[in-house]
Amino acid sequence: MKKISLFLLLPLAFLFLGCANEHAGHHEGEAVAVKLDNGNKWVANPETTEGIVNMQSLVDAYLGGGDTDVQALRTSLETEFSTIFEKCTMKGEAHEQLHNYLLPIKAMLKNLDENAGTAEIESIRAYLGTYKNSFMK
Description:
Radius of gyration: 19 Å
Mean pLDDT: 82
Number of helices: 6
Strand order of the largest sheet: 1-2
Distance between the termini: 58 Å
Structural class: mainly alpha
Oligomer: single chain
Shape: elongated
Largest sheet: 2 strands, parallel
Helix content: over 70%
Number of domains: 2
Number of strands: 2
């Protein structure tokens, strides 16, 4: 009986792990362009928009203030980024499109290290500025 149970459970375990890895890959994978809602912007929950605005403010303050602590900037941006995910209430296609928008930010933050220069931070600023092209409150 134990051999039969193990024989049945092992494939189920691999199936579960495969699905979990596929789901994780969606969040870690390559960026996909954001599609509009039949030509209209997606309605975002206020907390998501607030998080993006906060990230823009952090980058603007860093670039405008002459701060050189890239790691502190990265930590602050990652905190806001995590908060966006924690407070997201969006569902369906709007939620999927938000993920498409956020994936490049995740990659930019991952690559933001002590060797990052103004160009890398300016590119984060520019990308955050595109949020309003696809989402509204």
